[in-house]
Design brief:
This protein is α/β, with parallel strands linked by helices and about 260 residues long. It has 2 domains: about 5-200, 2-enoyl-CoA Hydratase, Chain A, domain 1 (Alpha-Beta Complex); about 205-250, no CATH class. Helix content is about 45%, strand content about 15%.
């Protein structure tokens, strides 16, 4: 696929995927959704870690409502088709891929863009970054997984406030509420995201199991979590990286992991 709305690069095991429509502050269109899904799928084969970000002044300003303009005359219109076909598959692919995903938010992460940002395994935010559940302002409901992701990150009461009132959550408060991992100056965001992803890319094979059990734990019983951990430990202990980790510990040196 030739990318027009997405930038893709691969360096030292890190795939950098950037939404690239600065004129609309990276508003999510059908074309962007298709390209994002292709890029994320490509990274699942090529990379050991992923950075998802946006070019220009915003991460993603939400769905491009121009895509819905032609539907307005149809009383049976369904703007949810854009989600089914283009953006829900991206969210699921980000969760299901073995590689850890770092999302790097500058400016707006609004609407479906908030969902994409929150779907990261680690979330970095520039000081200019903010999250906005903008749906109420256009008579829609949360999408992009926001109702699930936001509620689990900040709790039902705070999530309900964001969704019902549609007010901006700035970077500092997002950090306070536990929605993001770190806040950095705008000029440092890209370097910080690549450095963090680079660290993950040099990590052991077991990072994929850590990701899997952590995501599963958000929606399973304690008994199932114990089973997931036990099975993950079995698989991780059979890897070359486990042997290297134990050997390096015994030899009092830093391990060199190969991701296998």
């Amino acid at each position: 696929m030739t990318y027009e709305k997405v930038l893709y690069s691969l360096e030292n095991g890190v795939a950098r995927i950037a939404m690239n429509d600065p004129a609309t502050r990276n508003a999510g269109s059908a074309q962007m959704g298709e390209e994002l899904f292709h890029a994320v799928t490509r990274a699942s084969f090529e990379a050991r870690a992923v950075v998802l970000t946006g070019e220009g002044k915003a991460f993603c300003s939400g769905a491009n409502l121009g895509d819905a303009a032609d539907m307005l005359a149809d009383p049976r219109r369904d703007v949810g088709t854009l989600l089914d076909r283009h953006f829900n598959p991206v969210i699921v692919a980000m969760r299901d891929m073995a590689q850890p995903v770092v999302t790097a938010v500058r400016g707006a992460a609004a609407g479906v863009g908030a969902g994409l940002a929150m779907a990261g395994d680690l979330i970095l935010c520039a000081e200019s970054g903010f999250f906005l559940q903008a749906f109420r302002h256009v008579g829609l409901v949360p999408d992009g997984g926001s109702s699930w992701l936001l509620t689990r990150a900040v709790g039902r009461v705070r999530a309900m406030e964001m969704m019902l009132l549609g007010e901006r959550l700035p970077a500092a408060k997002a950090l306070e509420w536990g929605l993001v991992n770190r806040v950095v100056p705008d000029e440092d965001l890209d370097a910080a995201a690549m450095a963090l992803a680079g660290e993950l890319a040099q990590g052991p094979w077991s990072l994929r199991r850590i990701k899997q059990v952590a995501w599963a734990a958000t929606d399973c019983t304690l008994e199932q979590a114990l089973t997931n951990e036990r099975l993950g430990q079995r698989d991780a202990s059979r890897t070359e990286d486990f042997v290297e980790g134990v050997t390096a510990f015994s030899e009092k040196r830093s391990p060199v992991f190969k991701g296998r």
